[in-house]
Specification:
It is found in: Membrane. InterPro entries: EmrE-like, Sugar_P_trans_dom, TPT_transporter. This is Sugar phosphate transporter domain-containing protein. This protein is an all-alpha fold. It has one domain (17-316). It has helices at 4-42, 48-69, 81-107, 110-117, 120-132, 138-156, 163-186, 196-218, 222-232, 235-260, 263-285, 291-316. Helix 1 packs across helix 11, helix 5 (120-132) crosses helix 7 (163-186) and helix 10 packs antiparallel against helix 11 (263-285). It is globular, with a radius of gyration of 20 Å. The model has no long low-confidence stretch (mean pLDDT 90).
Length: 317
């Protein structure tokens, strides 16, 4: 038996460790959003595909170091060609989600993209029903009404509304939801299940392979342009390196917070993160926000919280 004093010290250490993890998760999540917005909109670096490719290169390198060198998690190998094709399909959808999200940041305030991104549960419920015919409890579907209604209201009250940016943001949100549903379907068997860190290890290099030709075709001379930019302002290189590193740490801290708390805790923290990101982006970028827009976003957040509670109750029933 350990003395009560040492048990108490251990509990305090665990609490501070958890607080540190959550803080790191918040910092990396909000940091990468703010840097993406700054680079693509305020700084004028109008190359979202190249930026996404930088993220995936960093994720490939850091994943390799974390799993194969530092043994952060046990290595899970790909067991078949079919499993590889499934991971490739997920990687393609993941690329579409990240690129679309980055494109939307060129045209829309970060606060508004967060409001649209909060509708992920709505798209998840739709895709889950269409692909698995899985029905949720009626109360769960009812809670999705304020989620969507809030975005409709926020769109009407957004002073900087841009239709193409809005479409890209919706595409990014839908693709994110589609990936989560497909991941559950494609990698559902015990022999194919991969934890999020191993999945990233395999998805990131495939994403680079997909994004490289897309960058060459759609964002011609981006390397030469970036080098020219660096000669006049070296900070662009540091911005890209920091942004890319943060993109990996979003995934790492996401995994660690889930491991040391629970998926439900991460969901609750995610709801709060959206609100925090909105406030910080308004303070930093000073984008105009209407009362109608804030009411719409608040309604969406309330709907997401109610949806989480309804899901929790239906799972516990």
């Amino acid at each position: 038996m350990k003395p009560k004093g040492s048990q108490r010290r251990m509990q305090i250490q665990i609490q501070w460790f958890t607080i540190g993890l959550v803080s790191a998760w918040y910092t990396s999540n909000i940091g990468v959003l703010l840097l993406n917005k700054y680079l693509l909109s305020n700084y004028g670096f109008k190359y979202p595909i190249f930026l996404t490719m930088c993220h995936m290169i960093a994720c490939s390198l850091f994943s390799y170091l974390a799993i194969l060198c530092f043994k952060t998690v046990p290595l899970q190998s790909i067991r078949s060609r079919i499993q590889f094709l499934k991971i490739s399909a997920l990687s393609l959808i993941f690329c579409g989600s990240v690129v679309s999200g980055n494109v939307s940041l060129r045209y829309l305030p970060l606060s508004f993209t967060q409001a649209v991104g909060a509708t992920t549960p709505f798209f998840t419920a739709i895709f889950a029903y269409l692909m698995t015919f899985k029905r949720e409890a009626w109360l769960t579907y009812v809670t999705l009404v304020p989620v969507v209604a809030g975005v409709v209201i926020a769109s009407g009250g957004e002073p900087s509304f841009h239709l193409f940016g809005f479409i890209m943001c919706v595409v990014a949100t839908a693709a994110r939801a589609l990936k989560s549903v497909l991941q559950g379907i494609l990698l559902s068997s015990e022999g194919e299940k991969l934890n999020s860190m191993n999945l990233l290890l395999y998805m990131a290099p495939i994403a680079v392979f997909i994004l490289l030709p897309a960058t060459i075709l759609m964002e011609q001379n981006v390397i030469a342009i970036t080098i020219a930019l660096a000669r006049s302002d070296i900070k662009i290189i540091w911005y890209l390196l920091l942004n890319s590193a943060l993109a990996y740490f979003v995934n790492l801290t996401n995994f660690l917070v889930t491991k040391h708390t629970s998926a439900l805790t991460l969901q609750v923290l995610g709801n709060a993160k959206g609100a925090v990101a909105v406030v910080i982006s308004i303070i930093i970028f000073r984008n105009p926000v209407s009362v109608t827009g804030m009411l719409g976003y608040s309604l969406t957040v309330i709907g997401v919280v109610l949806y989480s509670e309804a899901k929790k109750r239906s799972m516990g029933a």
